[in-house]
Amino acid sequence: MERNSLYESGLLRGEFLPEVVAYYFKQWDNYSMPFHAHNQVEIMYVIEGHCNVETEGASLQLKKGDFIILDAEVPHRLLVEKGSPCRMLNIEFRFHERKGVFPSIKNIAEEDPAFARFLKMNSPYLLLKDANEVYPILKSLVLEMDERGKENLLMVHLLLSQLFIRMARLAVETIANEPEHQANMYVKQALMYLHENYDCDIQMKDIAADVNLHPGYLHRIFKKHTGLTVMEYLTSVRMEKAKMLLSETDIPLIEISDYIGINSRQYFSSLFKKHTHQTPVEYRKTAMHKKEFASWEKV
Fold first, then answer.
1. Cα separation of 56 and 45, whole Å?
2. Which residues form the HTH araC/xylS-type domain (predicted)?
């Protein structure tokens, strides 16, 4: 027995598993798709560029990091402007009766309240903004299916469970507090960018470009959510990394600044002292003494 809609009540009564029936990466340009519908649920994720997805009642603009969940039998079409390519990942899935010991849709709903709420939204589509939490799961899922096919169903079902929970939490948060949630997503993206690129020469315009926001607006929402400006937060990240490198590695002092994206050793030293009340040399000596003392206590 199969279930096609995400909102069929039978999913919460029986033991059903999701089954991916189609998935593909595709770059679209100058494309106008006719209205059509699938007999399974579809996820359309924008990796690069922008596009429009039209349903019978709405025209929705998607850009990088946006994705739409279309329920089964919902008429829709994709529109991509000429000269503005859009790269997407599409996944289609349905549900079948459980075989094996994998967690069913009902099991997940019983353990995760957000997923239980998600299954009762009964919306023809959900447009959501990802803070790089959903796409890594989607990519891992399709690569797993490409590489191993049906050889490793355990990993596929674990990734599907993770995907459903992550999408459900995002959907619940979005609907509960749409304006605040969207700002929070931008801040999450900015934080991720800072933690992944603190070793580079980062400027405000680089961070704003990564999250597709005006620098001034990003500055305002970032300070509202974190209590710090973007550059204050970046400095705090760099100082924490410097403390770790000084205390836990043998990297020469003159190279530490390069590891955290500060080109001037003199500026790094003064900044470090301002934050820790010690010079880098003093901090490393103190850390070494603490380790020596700890080793003596163990003897």
1. 20
2. 188-286
Mean pLDDT, rounded, for 127-140: 92
* Residue among 16, 1, 3 nearest 109 (CA): 16
Question: CATH 1.10.10.60 residue ranges in the chain?
Answer: 177-299
Considering only CA atoms, which of 235, 182, 256, 175 is closest in space to residue 212?
A: 182
Decide which of 2.30.140.10, 1.10.460.10, 3.40.50.80, 2.60.120.10 is the CATH code for 2-176. 2.60.120.10
Distances in Å between the Cα of 242 and the Cα atoms of 193, 226, 237, 253 are 18, 21, 9, 10
Q: How many helices (H) and strands (E) does the chain have?
A: 11, 10
As a three-state string, the secondary structure of 208-219 is: HHHHCCCHHHHH
pLDDT digits (tens, 9 = 90+) for 45-87: 999 999 999 988 788 889 999 999 999 999 999 999 999 999 9
